Amino acid sequence: MAKRRKKKSKKTPFWLKVLVSIFIIVIVSGGIAAWRLYHAIYQPNIFLGERKTTHIFIPTGSNFNDVKAILYEKGMIINTNTFEWLAEKKNYRNNIRPGRYLIHEDMGNNELINILRSGQQDPVMLTFNNIRLKEQLAGNIASQIEADSLSIIRLLNDHAFLEQFNMNPETSKLLFIPNTYEFFWNTSAEQLLTRMHREYNAFWNEQRLAKAQRINLTPLEVGTLASIVQLETSRPDELPRVAGVYINRLKRNMRLQADPTVIFAVGDYSIRRVLNRHLEMDSPYNTYKYAGLPPGPIALPEQRVIDGVLNYENHEYLFFCAKDDFSGYHAFARTYSQHLANARRYQNALNQRQIMR
Fold it and tell me: Taking the model in full, what pTM does it have?
């Protein structure tokens, strides 16, 4: 039997091997490049330590170097090279937006730059209450937004600027109705006051304006009276009654003789007992010396107190004095002799507790 001939195996051409190798290298290299590109764009690139989120503040007028300094000095960016590379690709350098931004730990470069470039701020919930002075008000607000306290005070004292709101430096505090308002952090002093004027007008709706007209007071006068009432009593259920006393005195052209106005005039808010020497203070805010309402509010009146004045209790009381039980409530009187008796009881209680000033 004849032997079968063995078939020769065909060798893979060298050029094909080279081509396949090149193809594999290209695929692998492309995969690595794609992975690196994806990582540079989308992978988390934020380090916040133990925190999950934080805020960064980019001031008005900042440039790209300023933004980098803010991020880098806090050690937030893990890979600064990829951040800067993508920022250049997305032209962030020419699209800096000031503001307050919420940063979270799983942000990639793309998400971070998109938020910063588009100005997607995390708003500030601006609150203010328990305020007596413009300096306090300005300081409180400046701690929450970009505008500094000096620029806010300057506008609160600027006659020309306040004319557009029909206000003056004495009444300008009344623009601010205590509440919680949503603001962007990069709000200027001018924008702040303009916005608060809109809120003021919204608060003084037709119903409130009609009530003010019925008691023959302007909104500014109501606010000024409310500031006195607010400092006279800490009891919400007593607000309309205290307001009624002052309305009665205004109707009779009697001096208000409100102790909180004397304390405001003296400028010593630690006073717990108003003495005769305090009453001699020569100031238009001293309602023992000067008739009518003071030139402006002695505090920032809350909404409920303003409404307490507008819905004052109709009665015949002309006097009131703190009760000697220190409950925060007051003893009301129709006559001066009744009031003197109430006042003596309270003064005796102060003496017993050795409260002399």
Answer: 0.85
